[in-house]
Design a protein that fits this description.
alpha/beta; Aminopeptidase; 15% strand; elongated; MurNAc-LAA_cat; membrane
């Protein structure tokens, strides 16, 4: 037997098998590359789409900050033994109750008779990243004939005036004189909150008719209902629509 011939024959067979293996391997690799390219073309960024979906699901609802004016050693306006700080807190607690019922995310600057400085009110709202700030107050004047209800806003806020109109359209239905909306650029909480902010002057404590309403539980509940209705409309039109609120994001806006 010629050993050299046998070795040469085996070498040729092994070379043929190796060649076939290489061809098959390269073919599978090419098919895999083409498949991956086509899949990427159909869905160029699957991981990005998933991330966007998760971000949408996890996005927090807009936070509404409710600010009952005055408190503690600062009574606000007074009428005998009746203090503004107590009336606005009662109304704000009714607002809180309705916000809970409607599943609207909120934060109360105070829920009891404590003093909170104007600086702290604005700072708390900013730290909480509020999207809407509503400050509740009562009015007073030396002329007891003065009465009514108004909504104050920052005229330098892009949508402040329109938001004030929405809120005033709700609270003017409370049976008090409609004093309309009022630009108040120098009010601290309207200037220093990094979000749209409104300050409501609900009635005059110096007016007997207004005061009687302000101290009535039924009126306070009705007032809270109208304020929350205004909040809902503002959220729907300006806050939940991100395109409409792009301009409201900077501290200079309010």
């Amino acid at each position: 037997m010629d050993v050299n011939k046998i070795i040469d024959k085996l070498s040729r067979k092994l070379s043929q098998r190796s060649l076939i293996f290489i061809i098959v391997f390269l073919s599978l690799a090419i098919i895999g590359i083409i498949g991956a390219y086509l899949a990427k073309k159909e869905n160029p960024n699957p991981s990005g789409s998933l991330s966007t979906s998760l971000e949408t699901v996890q996005e927090k609802p807009p936070l509404v900050v409710i600010d009952p004016g005055h408190g503690g050693w600062d009574p606000g306006a007074m009428a005998g033994d009746i203090n503004e700080k107590d009336i606005v807190l009662d109304i704000s607690i009714e607002i809180e109750r309705l916000l809970i019922e409607k599943n609207i995310d909120y934060y109360m600057i105070r829920t009891e008779d404590i003093y909170v400085s104007l600086e702290d009110r604005a700072q708390i709202a900013n730290e909480k990243k509020g999207r809407l700030f509503i400050s509740i107050h009562n009015n007073s004047f030396t002329d007891s004939a003065q009465s009514g209800i108004l909504t104050a806003y920052n005229p330098y806020s892009p949508n402040g005036k329109d938001m004030a109109k929405i809120m005033q359209s709700k609270i003017k239905e409370l049976g008090m004189k409609n004093r309309d909306i009022m630009p108040r650029p120098n009010l601290y909480v309207l200037r220093h909150t990094e979000m749209p902010a409104l300050l409501l002057e609900i009635g005059f404590m110096s007016n007997k008719k207004d005061l009687k309403l302000l101290t009535a539980g039924d009126f306070q509940k009705k007032c809270a209902k109208q304020v929350v209705s205004g909040i809902e409309d503002i959220l729907d039109k300006y806050i939940l629509d991100s395109k409409a609120t792009d301009a409201e994001g900077s501290p200079a806006a309010d």
